[in-house]
Structure formats: C-alpha cells, structure tokens
Amino acid sequence: MWIQPPLAVPSAPTDATDKARRERRRALIVPREHGAWGLLLVPMITGAGVAFRQASHIFPLILLSAAALALFWLRTPLESLIGTSAMRAESHDERRIVRSLVMVLGAVSALALALLLWAGRNADLLPLGGVVAAAFIGQALLKKLGRRARMASEMIGIIGLTAAAPAAYYVITGEFNNTAWMLWLANILFAGDQIHYVQLRLHTAKVEGFRAKLQRGWGFALGQALMTAIITIACLDRLMPPIASLAFAPLLFRGWYYFIQEPGPLVVRKLGWNELKHASAFCVILIATFLLAR
Q1: Rounded to two decimals, what is the model's pTM?
Q2: Distance (Å, whole) CA 224 – CA 196
C-alpha cells in the first residue's frame, strides 16, 4: 500500500536565517549612523535655502547633492569590502554585492563631480573637499582609539558633514563669502550641540537631580554657554543677521531644560524623533531669518 509522504513545511529557523542574512547584507551596504544623514542634509538644505535668495541655479545643486550623498553612502560598503569596519563582507556573495554597490556609487560621485568641476567651474570646491577629506581621515584615526575618543571623532566628522552648507551656497551663487562661512559655522554649532545632547541623555538616563546632572553634564553646559557666546559675537559683528540667532533658541532651551526637568524613562526612539523636529525647526527658522534680513 502506497502512503504519500508528508509535505515539507518550512521551518522557523530557516525563516529566521533568511531574515538574519538580509539584515546582515543591509548592514554591509547601508550607513548605520542614521543620524548622520540628517547631519549631511540639514546643512545642504540651509545652504541652498539661503542661496536661493540670490540665485536659482538648481542644476549645480542637484550635482552636488548626488555627489555628496553617493560619497557618504560609499563609505559603509567600502569599509565592509576592505575590512576596516566591524561588519566585513566575508562570503563570495557578500563581496559581490558590496563590490557592485561600491562601483555604482563611485561612478555616480565621479560623474557628478566631473560635471561640477568641468572647464574650471566651481574651483573653490577643491580646497573645501580637501578639508572634508582631512576631517574624515582624522575621524577614522580617532575611532581607532576606541570609546574614549568617540565624542572627539564625531565632532571632527561634523566639520566634514556640515561643509555641505557652504558648498551648496557656493555652487548656487558662485560666491564663497562671509555668508557661506557663517552657514558653515551655524551648522557646526547646531550639529555639535545635537550630538553632545544625545550622548548626554544616553549616558545619564538614570541620573536624577540638578546637581547630579550638572556634575555629569558640565561639559555640555559649557558647550551651550560657548555656543551662545559665539552666536552673540557673530551677531554683534554683523557676520550673521541678529535675527538668525532665533534658529538656536529651541536648541538652547531644550539643552538647559534638561538640567531641571523631572526624571523619567528614556525612550530612545522618542529622543530621535525630537531631535529630528529640532533639526527641521533649525532649517526653517535659519532660512527664514536670513531671508527676512536681506
């Protein structure tokens, strides 16, 4: 008597393995520092928004955006391929996928930069690119020192990411003037304060009381005071429109409020969304105040 064998049922471990494999491949090719996307896009948006009050050259901005985003994305798969990151491409299939993405992103960035610099145009991007490269090399070297140099490495990396602000302003207006420098400085101050605040919240989630918080967060408090002083000097010297200081008001308020707010559980996702709201507010207010001060 013939008996039909039971149908094979996919096992849960197989599904879990496939999911783990997909997540690993994603980690090999997609930048893991999700906040860094904002640290790149916020400066580019503010630089472009302020520049559009003088000119409307959109094509150079498209090329710059393509080059910047491709180069930023390129770092993760490239590090995975050459083995300088925690996640390394190990199997033949992983190396093939990562290598293909590296080639595509490299081609996109090279083509965009070639069109931007064609016939000697946008020549001031070259020294700016040198500063960016130096910042990322310095960041990579500091990362090798471990956790103790993590904050310093992130601050150095900010210099490179926020260079998108003067770059966007320059390719649209054709000028690298005081406004370009002030946009760079404003974005460095904003991004630096934001990173410092997030790290402070993550490392003092269980700290309660004003005195205890100040003892642990005196460096952040000093940074807030220093940022206020720099903004004040820039406005008094008319390097930045005085009204533009309003863009930093929400940031400063939430920073000082931390020391006196009631203790509560830290929800990392909520913290991330709140910082996204602050980034959006900074973009809108900074652009609007520069336009009003025209």
Answers
A1: 0.85
A2: 10
Q: Are 174 and 123 in contact (CB under 8 A)?
A: no
Cα separation, 186 vs 251, whole angstroms: 12
Amino acid at 146: G
Residue-wise pLDDT for 49-63, tens only, equals: 999 888 878 899 999
Q: How is residue 26 written in tokens?
A: 């994603």
| Sign of the dihedral defined by the CA atoms of residues 57, 63, 68, 69, in that order | positive
- Are 231 and 248 in contact, with CB atoms under 8 Å apart? yes
Give the tokens for residue 34. 């999700």
Nearest to 187 by CA among 138, 247, 271: 247
Using CA atoms, how far residue 270 sits from 92, 109, 279, in Å, is 39, 34, 14
Long-range contacts, 225-228 (Cβ 8 Å, 24+): 227/189, 227/192, 227/193, 227/252, 228/252
Task: Report which secondary-structure segment, H or E, holds 187.
Answer: helix 178-203
The DSSP 8-state label assigned to residue 7 in this structure reads: P
Mapped to the 3 state alphabet, what secondary structure does 99-160 carry?
HHHHHHHHHHHHHHHHHHCHHHCCCCHHHHHHHHHHHHHHHHHHHCCCHHHHHHHHHHHHHH
Look at residue 144 and give its three-state secondary structure.
Answer: coil
The per-residue pLDDT of the chain, averaged, comes to: 84
Angle of helix 164-173 relative to helix 34-51, nearest 10 degrees?
Answer: 30
